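G., the chain you wanted modeled:
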Amino acid sequence: AGIPRESVRIVKEHHENLMGTGFPSKLGKSQLFPMARLAHLLSRTATAALAVEPAFRGQETMQALARVRDREAGVFDPVDVFALEILFAEKDVEKARIKMTQSMGLTTRR
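Predicted structure as tokens:
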């Protein structure tokens, strides 16, 4: 049992980016675990939405996500941005999971 391998990858890779200039291993897009990419984008969006960065102060979640997407073009995959838009818009978690899985081209697992 123990900690799932996927969880460890999310934690380890959540500050990597598509360009291979992230932290700690400078992994590129093809090497990154998809959920780690989402965790990185979510982290940046949360930072923006919580007004840690003055440029984002007072913005709603979707506005913060759009601002991160526009301000950091090339750092985040547009597919990942779309997946988070689904998550933020869909109130039903299971429906969001299915839609996100499909939009990212992943397989549906429970």
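The mean pLDDT is 87.

Shout if anything looks off.
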